Every structure is written in structure tokens, then in C-alpha cells.
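WARN retry 2 of 3 for item q-0093 after timeout on previous attempt; input resubmitted unchanged.
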Amino acid sequence: MGFPQEAIPAQVAKNLIVECRIPPRTAWRLASELSLDVAAHQYNAVTGDPRAGMRGTRIWEYEQWPERGVRPTVAALRVLAQVYGTSWKCLLGLRDLEQLPAKDLAEYHADAEPVAVAAAEPAVPPARTVARAEPRPGGEVGAGALDDALRLTTTNVDDVQLDDLWSDLDFLGGAYTRTAPDSILDQLAVIEERTASLLKGRQRPKQTQDLLLVGAKSSAMMAWIAGDLGRYRLSRELNSAAWLYTQYADDFLARRWVRTSQARVAFWAGNGIESAKLAADGLNYRVGGRLTDAPLILAEARGWSSVQAERQVLDAIARWTTIEDPDIGAGGEDRFFNITKDRRHYMAGNSLLSVGQASAALREFTTAREAFEKLSPENRWEAMDPMIRIDTGRAHLRLDDLEGAAAQVAPLLDAGVGKQPDMVRATLKLLTTELSGPRWRSATTARNLAEALLDAHASARP
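OK item q-0093 returned
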């Protein structure tokens, strides 16, 4: 009929709305020749957010509103409009406008974008009226099936609540590096309790999965922080809860969160081989890119280092080296599990040091120190400074450089380590043991340093 290619979707959508009486959001998706799942995939691509999590079922729910389903936010409509190549206002009909909140309606009228298709919609769409037409005979099989199915649209959760939960988790993940761990643990516990309470009610399937993911992440974060405080039994219980959440959510990224936390807790609790195996299992859940691989690969190396399994350690470090990007800081929005550059290089150095690779370890610690100092104060994990200093001192000792070791540790002794996490006390004890060993026993500097470290270790006990 002579229409240019770029105008065809709009003409098809107009025809579907006016002639076939199909609601605008459905009409534009069909005119764009997209299935629900493909539309969801393109939605996530437009946002550029791997956690956006749009799915075909959610787009279907948007298309059912306002008769049932879920009201799409203006932000969601703007993204869908980009996917379909139209204006967000074209995705709303008169029946939608009648049900919009006042704020959204005001934004609709304030937006200068023209509405390409002004849809006259039926009072009740035919596809729906057919299903509800005549009551079925009393004893007919399946007579109540539709009513039963419609109960699935009832929910005790809305998008605002879910957004609040995710926002709180993201905030606490970022605040972890600069806030007392007890305080973060308490706030995470509130999120987990709120989530568990909501799960006792009824939600739509996608909302239930979102709540399960919130429960998984909050529990895994709590387990991580409880480990920092030396509360390893509580950590294991929380990680067990987190894993149960992930099993029901059936989400690979969530499984990685939990395996990362489990591997960390197992290592600092003294179970190195278990830690390595947990990290290796986490890598089986393929999702994302190198940012999500690096913490698990380094955790695997560190686990094997605790039993001096040099071959496994060097293999893991080699795998990490091939994917490490010096320009990558913390991973996107999730700065809790996708650790910063200083922490990645520290973990590599710690593993290398444990298998006798002191020179290579020292290079990693030097890189870790440089990366740490480049971070803004709010993005620094406070424990990183003493841990880098302690293990750099250990590397100097392995290279017969007692003065270099003393120079690293002296500022730490001046500042004190009383409020540092449990792993700082553990590494401090390792350095003290090495200074007290046969190699340095006769050196006055070593004896004095060991005594000072023993005093610092005692002051750091909770």
C-alpha cells in the first residue's frame, strides 16, 4: 500500500487497536513482531542493567492492566516504547488513563510527545468477555477454573515494595565498607524478616521469585558479615537459609552470591578444601562476565592455598590473570560480591604467598596497595589496609627482609587493630608466629616486633 518500512509498525498497531480492539501495549508488541520473551530480552538490553530482570510474564501482566495484571510504571512504559519504536503515551489507552495515579496522569499531559494513535477501546475487551460470557451448568467439569486462575493475580506486594527492598540491599552493600558490621547486620536482618513475612502471603509468581532473591541475597550478605565478626556458626546457618532461597528462586546469579559467601566463611573458619570446592561449584552457574567470575576463582585459589596445593593455586591464579581487567573496579551496582581491584589482588597475593611464591605475592600486594590508595574513602574497606600491610610484611620475611617487614607493620601498630574484623586478627597471628620461628628468633628486631604484635592481637580480641 506504499507505506515506508519504518511506518508499517505504527499502521499495524493502529489497525489492531481500532479495528481489532486490541489494547495498545499488546498491539504495539504484535506490530513490532515480538514475542513476550523477546520483548523482555530487548527491554533488559535497553536498560543495560543485568539485574533489571524483565521477563515475558511481567510484560504480559502489564498488557492485562487495568482489567487485571500489574500497572506499568511510567519508567517501564518509556523503556517499552524504545523497544517498540514509539512514544510511551501511545502505549496507554483511555481506559488506562482512567486508572492512572494523579502523578502519572499529570506527567502524561505535561509530556510534549504526540500520541500517534488515540485508541477508542471497548468497555470490556471481547477476548475477556467471551471467557466470562454465560455461566456454565452447575456440575460441569472445570466450571470454576477461570475464577481459580484469576486468584493468581491477587498479591500482597507491589513494585514499590520490591524496589525498596532492592534499593536497601544495594545501599547496605555499598555502605558495608565504611560502616560498623554490627549495624549492617542488624539492618539486613530487618530486610530478611520483612521479606519472609511477605512470602507468607500471596504474590504473583514473578513477585514471589523476586522476594526469594531478596531473601537469598540478604541472608548471604548477613552470613558474610557474621563471618567478619567471627560468628561462624551463625554464618553457616545464614548461608544454609540463603541456599534454600536460591533453590526455590532457581536463579544462577543468586547461587553465585551464596557460593561466594559460603566459600569465604569456610576459608576463614579453617575449612580450606571445602572453601575451594564451594567456589569451584559457584563457577558452574554461568552468568554475567568476568566480574562475577573473579571473586569465585580467587576464592578457589585461596581455599587450595590453605593446604599448600600449589598446582591448583597456580592454575586458578592463571585463570584469573586471563580475565582480570586493570580498569575494572567494583562490579556495577553490586559492590558487595563483585569486589574491588585492591581486594582481588590481595586475594591473589595471599594465595601465592601460602604456596611459597613470595616475589609474585609481593607484586600483587604492591598492586593491591596502589589500588587501595586510589579508591575514594567511602569505597575503601577499612580492613584492607591492615591486611595488605600484614601480608606484605610476611612476604618480606620470606625474602629475608626483616627491615622491610618492620616498615610495613609499624604504622599498623601505631593505629591499633582493636575494631578490625576477625580475619585481621587471624593474619596478625600468622605474622607473629613467623617472627617467633627459628629463622628470626635470635634477631632483636624480630623479637620486639613479635611482642608488639602479640599485644596488638590481644587488644583486638572481641
